[in-house]
Amino acid sequence: MLGKQGAGxxxxxxxxxxxxxxxxxxxxxxxxxxxxxxxxxxxxAKEYMDAGxxxxxxxVIKLVHEVFTGNFLERGFILxxxxxxxxxxxELDSVLGSEHPLDLVIDLEVPTAIVLDRIAGRRVCxxxxxTYHVNMPPKSNWTCDICGGRVVQRDDDTEEAVHRxxxxxxxxxxxxxxxxxxxxxxxxxxxxxxxxxVFERLVHEIDRRFDPTER
Length: 215
Ligand SMILES: [Zn+2]
Known about the structure:
Blueprint: E1 2-3, H1 9-20, E2 23-26, H2 27-37, H3 40-50, H4 57-67, H5 70-75, E3 77-80, H6 86-96, E4 105-109, H7 112-120, E5 122-125, E6 131-133, E7 151-152, H8 159-183, E8 186-190, H9 195-207
The protein binds zinc ion (ZN).
């Protein structure tokens, strides 16, 4: 599942996971799991994450080799936030090989102006991570409805920070989208609108390509 930050990848991947009974694999989860297990690539990734940096291709590629094996492949999965760059995509392709190729790559399309509004308006509970928006704040005085924690804007959710990440996305991830387009497995899905509308579009797009009775 590809798409700019704020396109709703995580939300949609979680919904699809339930619907199709596959595993939701976010890059962050992969990295944290590998770091917790103390694998060589996991420890390397942890250093970058602790420093608030993007994990570089070399490390990600090592992780891919550690992670993409056996059971995991048999069960089926949705990748969220990965591959982020062309070298990562090519490496994933060669690790999965012809036995377990990716079935479909979804590009959640959303205009930059909407992404900016979603992210720059986002507020997060410091305590439980619940998310709000300036247009949909908690009931009382930026106090979390769920746990009573303080609801704040994260440092990396400012408009400037979002612009930087969007630029990086165009430079590094746009070629990934083109790569999958050339392989003929890309589906561009309009991600503007309510979450459930977008989900309907995704299900439609998936079901018309794959026969559900074969699952
Ligand atoms: Zn909370």
